[in-house]
Amino acid sequence: MTGRRGSLRKHGRVALAGNYIPLGHSAPKLDFGLLSRHAPALAGDLVFGRFCVPRFSEYRTADHATLVARARHHLRGANMTRQMTHVGEVATFELLPDGDEICGSILVVHGWTSESSFMMGLAEPLRRSGFRVVLVDCPAHGRSRGDRTNLIDCAHAIVCVADRFGSFDGILAHSMGALAAVMAGAGPGPLPHPVSFSRYCLISAPNNFSGVTERFAKRIGISVAARRQFERQFERVARMPLREYRTDRFLRIVRKRTLVMHSRDDHEVSFHNAVEMTESCEDATLCAFEGLGHRRILYAPPVVRAVVRYFRGA
Q1: 231, 254, 301, 311: which has the fewest C-beta neighbours closer than 10 Å?
Q2: Exposure class string for 83-105: b at 16+ Cβ within 10 A, else e
Q3: All domains of the chain, ordered by start, with CATH?
Q4: At what angle do helices 176-186 and 151-165 cross, to 10 degrees?
Q5: Could you give phi then psi for residue 125, rounded to 5 degrees?
Q6: From residue 24, how far is each of 20, 56, 144 by CA, in Å?
Q7: Model-level pTM?
Q8: Where is 231: in which H helix or E strand?
Q9: pLDDT, tens digit (0-9, with 9 covering 90-100), for 143-180
């Protein structure tokens, strides 16, 4: 038994040198709770690898493929390009307004397990309002390459896309994409440099990333020791303590006008995250909604109108 555990642990270390542990198709069947009681360090490493595969997320619905096929229809008029970045090849989509005059440029970032096509309910109205809109599929999402990614990789991709397409007047981001967006704006740790966005619009954004990891660890059922090892891997990748993975902290660094939009009935990222952000950041304003949950908020007419008004400077 000792020799087997030692062999597994050695394999885990080798895999971690490349940032991820290859889990294979059997990963969802692992009893992480049981493993965490006997080998917490190994369990934490494996849970990190599991977390970093978006297609394994419990938030991805059974009809995801059907929804993707429908949503991508709305991107048919976009200019799609593939850009090689330091974290792999990512797909980008550029939408241009109908007229010759462009009133500004907006970068749009989706949430975890999602893709650019699901942001078209907001991107298309911005295009019709005169904006050049660029959407990015984060690494391992949508039509970008790869199976595994993490928050820092997503932020790194945002920096690379911003460098490729030139200056942006603002950035619109949903859920975990919002945390990656403000991280890209602040430019901490391994990111090459900060990106200067004039304003931010953050929809259904988590404020404290440790809350995300805690919820995931509880759902998987791992021990406290295994959870700590799981979280250490994020600290290793980002080169900063997990407590500094905070949206409000990054907002205080960038010090730009920010609109925080959140529905009070969001059961995936609770409303208190938006309250924390706006109470601790003087440049942030809260726009609260009722009955829109975590995803319907991306298509609701009152939200669309508020987003367009905000980026138009009203």
Answers
A1: 301
A2: bebebbebbbbebebeeeeeebb
A3: 2-56+212-234 (no CATH), 64-208+246-311 (3.40.50.1820)
A4: 60
A5: -60, -35
A6: 12, 11, 20
A7: 0.88
A8: helix 224-238
A9: 999 999 999 999 999 999 999 998 899 999 999 999 99
